[in-house]
Amino acid sequence: MAELLGFPPQVLFGQLLIGLINGSFYALLSLGLAIIFGLLNIINFAHGAQYMLGAFVAWLGLKFLGVNYWVSLILAPLVVAAIGIALEKTLLRRLYKEDHLYGLLLTFGLALMIEGSFVHFFGVSGQPYSVPQALTGGNNLGFMFLPTYRAWIIVASLVICFGTWYMIERTKLGAYLRAGTENPQLLQAFGINVPLLITLTYGYGVALAAFAGVLAAPIYSVSPVMGSNLLIVVFAVVVIGGMGSIMGAIVTGLLMGLIEGLTKVFYPEASTTVIFLVMIVVLLVRPAGLFGKEA
Amino acid sequence: MKMLKKLMCSAIVSAMAAAGAAQAKGISDDEVRIGYLADMSGTYSALAGSGGLEAAKMAIEDFGGKVNGKKITIVSADDQNKPDIGANKVRQWIDVDNIDMVAGMVSSAVTIAVNKVVEAKDKISIVSGSASSAITNQYCTANSVHYVYDTYALAHGTGEAVVQEGGDTWFFLTADYAFGHAMEGDVTSVVKASGGKVVGGVRHPLATNDFSSFILQAQASGAKIVGLANAGADTTNALKTAKEFGVVQAGQKLAGLLIFLTDVYSLGLETTQGLQLTTGFYWDRTPETRAWAERYKERTGAMPTMVQAGIYSSVNHYLNAVKAAGTDATEAVMSQMKKTPINDFFATNGQIRDDGRMIHDMYLAEVKKPSESQSEWDLYKILRTIPADKAFRPLSESKCKLVAGR
């Protein structure tokens, strides 16, 4: 059999597909971050904690109220978004005019508090959450065994990602949002409730994180530290894509998943660092990121 | 002959010294003070953590809170798995708070650093949580005891059993740091010695989030056994992914080399069934283990890991030694602990060797199928007992300075 770069092609295809799956996770998380940064100018360090909250709401719902996976997929993002909106209305709102650093410190502090209290109550070893009945099993694709749930992750996150992109770039609501970031006073003069728009946007960004959390619950352990493990990588993805660029976040997320997947075959020791390597190179060559507009 | 004379002399001298110390010192500061050091909030906090502290407190309460009329106190600290933090804390405990014994101790790196401090200050440490067999090998000290298990015991227990059952080709998923390398090395030599071979492996970074890529590589290797030379969240994530990708259904078997009861509980039997592992303690093994574990569960809400059970047993053994020696002076207590066999719910005829290794029976266990499990914590069946003299590294192979050349 012919070999590609010293590996049989089926091994390589398998790894590329896995990379795409992980990439769609990165895309989903970095999309939320990009929206929040693009429209609110807040670097949302609580994103990892909100992702974790999403998974925990699903787990708590299943354990204590018998809420199944499909309901959680809708309900958990709503619950976490409501918490996010409360945060925005009481705390974040006061920081829009200040330097980015204040928003970063606030959200970082909140993330530490949320994670700390969850560690206190639930410990770090992780809670079990099983794959929903309809998505168990898998298919043998010839070159690899693809679990149905992983296929579902790709489909679900791509639908959400491109739906969000379409809403922001192609609809009237999206036009308002974009106008709101350019010139809020002018938009308000046209009779649009800009503060409400911003609150809802933050809520939506947070809901995306929680949605990713519910998606992740069956394949990773539901643990209080699950978000902080992922957050740094997701930030790197946003930076590579260009801060605030919606399409940049989606495409870069997928791309980084692929690059990471290949690294895991050729040099696994570097698999957690390769994304940061790419980030350094991109920042040197294109400081605004791959899809960012030069200031 | 000369040797014998020398030995006799030193025995007499040390006996005199011990007796002298006992008379002169009694219990220092009129209190026996224990410091409990562990990861209280991080990756390894489930296996020892606050449960271990509770176990130590239970041991003190069961002892009556006093030894020879003097009060027993305990303090605790979170080492955050960082050697510098752990070593500094223990230095402060000994210098300022007059701590007599350090218990708990989880991350091997922290333990090796702390043991150096304890040796320099001539106090006692009893290590229950750490894995590395180097603690009683090249890093051994006369002031430390390694109580529950080590990488040598895990490698021999699980590795040999798996190869004997036909698992003669191995692929490793190894955490890319000292512990993972040691574990992989120990198991590799066992596999080779038992007639198996290692066909490949991946070294993954510590705290890897997604194992699917590595699991695919393990599947492509065609090895009969996928050995997990990692711990904590890495092990649970790897097991979860292996289940998802149908590793077991496709005919491969998994060997978890360092798995705690809390890991299995957290993953659920559906994911872990059939997994073989080596453990120093299982709560549902004898009436004595059950009785103690039920009491522990009442206080903490969970069944004990082997580490938590070991912490109780080791604190109890220490207090008994203090009582018998009539002092908390280091040398007298250490020699008392070493000459007294350990017989309790945790160990039968356990014995602390000169290198500090506590040797006792280990158990090869298999995780039950969901259908076999009767209750929430009914997780293991014990396949066989690995006798104490087979379970741990023989002194003849030791590099420990205290026993080398014997």
UniProtKB/TrEMBL annotation, chain A:
It is a multi-pass membrane protein. It is found in: Cell inner membrane. The chain crosses the membrane at residues 12-35, 42-62, 68-88, 100-122, 149-168, 189-220, 232-258, 265-285. It holds the Pfam family BPD_transp_2. Coiled coil: none annotated. GO terms for biological process: amino acid transport. Keywords: Amino-acid transport, Cell membrane, Membrane, Transmembrane, Transmembrane helix, Transport. GO terms for molecular function: transmembrane transporter activity. GO terms for cellular component: plasma membrane. Belongs to the binding-protein-dependent transport system permease family. LivHM subfamily. This is Branched-chain amino acid ABC transporter permease. It comes from Oceanospirillum sediminis.
Automatic annotation (TrEMBL), chain B:
InterPro entries: BCAA_transport, Leu-bd, Peripla_BP_I. It comes from the Bacteria. Residues 31-368 form the Leucine-binding protein domain. Residues 1-24 form the signal peptide. Keywords: Signal. It holds the Pfam family Peripla_BP_6. Belongs to the leucine-binding protein family. This is ABC transporter substrate-binding protein.
